[in-house]
C-alpha cells in the first residue's frame, strides 16, 4: 500500500516472511556457571523443529549489553558476526558471581505479507490492535506492511548468589519481566511475569512458553491480565523461552502501516522436586 516497487525489489534480497520464522531469542551456551567465567550467547530464530542461527551482522545491532546488580556493560566488543565458518555469537568478559541479564535490540526491518497470510499471522500472534484496526478500516483484503524489530533477554547465573536485578525492566520497548527469580521458584513451581509496552503494563498480549535444550516443560500460553501479568508453572528443571509479540497501527508513515515488536526471555528454572 505504501512501499514503492523499487523499494520492494531491494528488500526482496534479504526478506524472510515472518510466518515462516519469526520467534527470536538469545541462547547462552550455558544458563548456569559454577564459577566466574565469560559467557557466550548465540542468536536463534525459528519455530519448533525449524530453528536456525540468526544472520547476526553489525548493521542489525542497536544494543547488546549485560545487566547486573552493579551496573551495565556494553558487549559490542564481543560480537562475532555470522560467517560461512561461524554461526554468529557474542562473548562477555569474565563475570563474577551473581545474576545477569543479557539484553539485545535490533534495528527495524520491513515485512510485507499478502492479505490472507497477514490476517492469519496477526490473529495467531494475538495482535489485537492490528486485527481490530484492519477490521474497522475495511483493510482485511489488503496486504499487511509492517516495520518490525526484535528485543531479547537471557538470564544467566554465575555461582550461587542470586541477585534481584533480573526482576527489574531494562527499558526495551516490549519487555517480559519475571517478578521473582526463576532459580528460586516457590512450592507451587509458579513464575509470574509482567509484559511491559513502552514502560506500561500490557493487557491482552499473548505470551507463550516452550522448553529449550531438551528440557521437558509443557508448552503454555496465556493472555496477560489487566496488569500485564501471566503466571506459568514449571515442574521440571531446565531452560525455557517466553515469547510475546505486539503491534500498533502507524499514522502517516511512508514505509509501513503497522509497527510490530517481537520480544523474548530465556532462562533456566530450578525444580522444587526432591
Automatic annotation (TrEMBL):
Pfam family membership, one: DUF4198
Q: Which of UniProt's keywords are assigned here?
A: Signal
Could you say which residues form the signal peptide? 1-21
InterPro entries, per database record: DUF4198 (IPR019613)
Protein name per Swiss-Prot or TrEMBL: DUF4198 domain-containing protein
| Organism expressing this protein natively | Alteromonas hispanica
Q: What is the organism lineage in this UniProt record? A: Bacteria, Pseudomonadati, Pseudomonadota, Gammaproteobacteria, Alteromonadales
